[in-house]
Amino acid sequence: RNRTRTGRKWVSGSGDSIDPLWSTERMHARHDLTWHRRYDKITVLSSNQLVLDNLRVCNNNGDTLNCGHCEKCLRTRMHLLLDGVESVPAFDNGTKLSVEYVQKQLDLTRSNPYGFWNEIHDRLLHERYQDDPRFTEYAHIVNKTLEQAHKV
Questions:
Q1: What are phi and psi of 3, to 5 degrees?
Q2: At what angle do helices 38-45 and 71-82 cross, to 10 degrees?
């Protein structure tokens, strides 16, 4: 987990060995839910409105919490949608995702998040979502995009 091909840990500003160092006398910081996948963590967070109002996942955000359209924002928004959260104020001022928007924005040729999008694709194919035609369309878009990205 979180290792490169050489077996070394990825360098980042957060991790189970680093996060406790952010603690102070008044606040204890800990790295939690390390055994969960990203979408499991998002599911936990999706029921907390305070978190949804202030959620920050974007690296391209500038002056806002999140740009709402980069790959990282898009995959987080898809997971939230799969958890029943249609609109999140921290992304595009609460603009709802649409099939057209996802089709226009989803581009995996500039990054390597295949594992994340494979998880989303698997979730979209779950029988729980088969009654809503949007999810069938999202699954088709994600599958097509994954196939195109593998060809590049």
A1: -125, 150
A2: 60
Biggest CA-to-CA distance, the chain: 52
Separation between Cα atoms, residue 43 and residue 45, nearest integer Å:
5
Nearest to 142 by CA among 129, 55, 12, 64: 129
Dump pLDDT digits (tens) for 54-96.
Answer: 898 888 867 788 888 888 899 999 999 999 998 888 887 667 7
Q: What are the tokens at 1?
A: 């987990």
Write out the two tokens for 7.
Answer: 């077996």
Mean pLDDT, consecutive 10-residue stretches, the chain (152 aa), reads 45 66 83 72 90 88 82 92 90 79 84 82 90 93 88 68
DSSP letter for 106, please: -
* Stated pTM of the model: 0.75
For residues 71 and 61, give the distance between their C-alpha atoms in angstroms, rounded to a whole number: 12
Q: What is the DSSP letter of 96?
A: P
